[in-house]
Amino acid sequence: MDSHNIMFVILAVIILISSVATVVSKSIIRAATYLLFVLLGTAGLYFLLGYTFLGSVQIMVYAGGIIVLYVFSILLTSGQQEKLNRVYLMKKIAVGMSCIAGLGIFIAMFFKQQFLATALSAPSESDASFLSIEEIGKHMLSTGEGGFLLPFEAVSILLLACIVGGLIIARKR
Amino acid sequence: MIQLEYLLIISAVMLFAGIYGFFTRKSTLAMLLSIELMLNAADINFAVFNRMLFPDGHEGYFFAIFGIAIAAAESAIAIAIMINIYRMLKNISVDELKQMKW
User: Fold this and answer.
1) What ipTM was predicted for this assembly?
2) Chain A contact for B68, CB < 8 A?
3) A133 lies within 8 A of chain B by CB
4) Top-level CATH class of B4-96?
5) Residue of B34, B68, B82 lying closest to A61 (CB–CB)
6) Angle at the Cα of B61 from the Cα atoms of B58 and A23, rounded to 5 degrees
7) In chain A, what are the domain boundaries?
8) Does A71 touch chain B (CB under 8 A)?
9) Which of B51, B80, B83 sits opposite A129 (nearest CB)?
10) A3-130: what fold?
11) pLDDT per residue over A99-157, tens digit each?
């Protein structure tokens, strides 16, 4: 066991426990906090894969931006506890059973699939998958092979529409 | 050793936790948290398949970034709608949402 594998096990345990705790915790503000741990663990996984820029984006946008937005809106809209009744409990059990069954099917398929991939090696700058910031910028703004200009512009229009829409929907009238 | 399957299992557990939360929660904000879990699981899959199966290409990497941007836009709009609903009804539980007209 080298440090790479030990970090993977730690991140996996954090993500698995926190993602289940996000959906079963009674208080919604606690659920948002557990979601923060899931997102930080995911950023750790991206660092482990060698995708440092993606991990930084995950921390800045998700953990830094979205979670703060959620916490503010939870505080604005009263974080009251959810009530339980008999029918609701039956529904919870049914959904939980079908989710566990679906998860079992997924995991069985993963091991039946026989992926060609070898085990993940520690990331290094000589890998074919390594991308420097300069290369990322060139990929983002080129139209040729390996260029992502069209989705880049589509996302920028989406964000503009999101700003205008958010202002119009949330304004006082 | 870290196999591809282990990373996929992590994202599958995250996806099904999100599905469970989406079906059982009554508060719309808690449902949004579950949607974030599901989107995050999809992003992990993009990055993992890119890194482990096609290390020469970069499609999964860039679409994970675009996925994060879309998730941010989606949650901002959704929270704006929630706050508007709260102003109208003083409640954001799905049981109270009988009309979507404002």
Assistant:
1) 0.91
2) yes
3) no
4) mainly alpha
5) B68
6) 155
7) 3-130, 131-173
8) no
9) B51
10) Four Helix Bundle (Hemerythrin (Met), subunit A) (1.20.120)
11) 999 999 999 998 898 887 677 777 776 676 778 888 888 888 888 887 899 999 999 99
